[in-house]
Amino acid sequence: MKKFYIGGDKIYDIKVIDSFANKQFSRLKLAKAYVKDTDEPHGIMDRSSTVPDSLITDKLLVISRSGVGVNTINVEASPEQGAAVLNTLGVNANAVKEAVISALFQ
């Protein structure tokens, strides 16, 4: 597994698949990571679309999926190339809870 340090003089290219709110990008600049439409990103941000295998290169450090599960990511190829695969468990728990409660009152 590759070791990497976020920060320093290195600038990271992040490919965004799907749409995200602008406030979700604010912390990227602190780590000198910038959204860029590239075929060889250092990182990938994904919601629910399939991450193309062509983006999983030896330059890729991390794939972050917003939501539960990693079924849209080739989790076998990613570690072979040295990339970590992350997801955000429980991030939508409040929205699900609110939808269930509102359905009960209809």
From TrEMBL:
It comes from Marinilactibacillus psychrotolerans. Residues 24-98 form the D-isomer specific 2-hydroxyacid dehydrogenase catalytic domain. InterPro entries: D-isomer_2_OHA_DH_cat_dom (IPR006139). This is D-isomer specific 2-hydroxyacid dehydrogenase catalytic domain-containing protein. Pfam families: 2-Hacid_dh.
